[in-house]
C-alpha cells in the first residue's frame, strides 16, 4: 500500500515523520504542501489543515495527522519495536515524553521562535494580537525563559537510563524531542552540553535518516539568522 507524506520542509513538527519514515526504511512519497494547507483540496482530506499528515488507503479516513500519532500508527502497523517498544513500561516513558513534548515543550518553543521565524501566532497569543512590538517581544521572551526548565525535565526524568527515551536505541520519543530541539537555536538560549551531546547521539544513531531531512530545518534557521 502506498504511503504519501504531506510536509513542510522547515517545520520541526514535520521533521519527526520525515525522520521516522527514513529510519524505518519505509517506501514513501514526500509532497511539499507549502502554501496549500488552507486550500479546499487539502482541507477536504485534512480538516485540521495541519501538517505533517500521511495518506494511505488502509486508514479509515485515508489520512492521519499529528506527528506522534502517525509514528505510533506506522510503528504499530509494521511491528517496529525498536522505534516503539511494546513493553508497557517503556511505552509509558515514550508516550509521556511525547505528550509532554506536544502539550508543554512545543507550545513554549513555538511562542519563543515563531515571531523570529516569521510564522503567525495562534489566536489569543500576544504575537497575534494588537499589542505593541515591545509587549510582543516581552511575551516571546517569557516563553523563551520557560524553556530551560522544560528541558531539564527530559534530562532528569526521561533520559535517566541509556541516553535514549524508553529504550537503548532511539525511539519515536527521541525523534520527536530531538526535532523540537532543532528550533531552539532561533532563541537566545545557549543549549546546555547535555542537550548538544544528546542531539549528536540521536543524529549519529539515526544517520542519514536524521541528517538528510534536518538539513531543511537547519538551512531555514541559517537563512532567518542571516536576515536578522
Ligand atoms: N501537534 C501537531 C502540530 C502540527 C502543526 O502545528 N503543524 C503546522 C506546521 S509546524 C502546520 O501544518 N500549519 C499549517 C501551515 O502552516 O500551513 C503535530 O505534532 O503534528
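Q: What amino acid sequence fits the structure above?
A:
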Amino acid at each position: 500500500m502506498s504511503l504519501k507524506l504531506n510536509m513542510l520542509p522547515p517545520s520541526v513538527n514535520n521533521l519527526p515523520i520525515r525522520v521516522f519514515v527514513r529510519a524505518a526504511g519505509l517506501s514513501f512519497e514526500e509532497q511539499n504542501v507549502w502554501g496549500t494547507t488552507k486550500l479546499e483540496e487539502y482541507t477536504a482530506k485534512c480538516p485540521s489543515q495541519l501538517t505533517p499528515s500521511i495518506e494511505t488507503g488502509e486508514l479509515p479516513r485515508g489520512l492521519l495527522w499529528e506527528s506522534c500519532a502517525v509514528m505510533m500508527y506506522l510503528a504499530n502497523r509494521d511491528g517496529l519495536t525498536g522505534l516503539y517498544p511494546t513493553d508497557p513500561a517503556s511505552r509509558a516513558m515514550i508516550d509521556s515524553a511525547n505528550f509532554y513534548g506536544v502539550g508543554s515543550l512545543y507550545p513554549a518553543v513555538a511562542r519563543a521562535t515563531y515571531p523570529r521565524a516569521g510564522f503567525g501566532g495562534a489566536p489569543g497569543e500576544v504575537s497575534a494580537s494588537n499589542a505593541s512590538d515591545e509587549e510582543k517581544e516581552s511575551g516571546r521572551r517569557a516563553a523563551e525563559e520557560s524553556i530551560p526548565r522544560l528541558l531539564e525535565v527530559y534530562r532528569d526524568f526521561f533520559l535517566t537510563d541509556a541516553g535514549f527515551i524508553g529504550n537503548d536505541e532511539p525511539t519515536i520519543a527521541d525523534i520527536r524531542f530531538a526535532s523540537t530541539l532543532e528550533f531552539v537555536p532561533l532563541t537566545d538560549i545557549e543549549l546546555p552540553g547535555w542537550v548538544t551531546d544528546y542531539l549528536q547521539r540521536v543524529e549519529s544513531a539515526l544517520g542519514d535518516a536524521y541528517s538528510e531531512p534536518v538539513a531543511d530545518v537547519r538551512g531555514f534557521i541559517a537563512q532567518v539568522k542571516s536576515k536578522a
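Q: And what stands out in the fold?
A: Residues 8, 11, 13, 37, 49-52, 65-67, 102 surround glutathione (CB under 6 Å).
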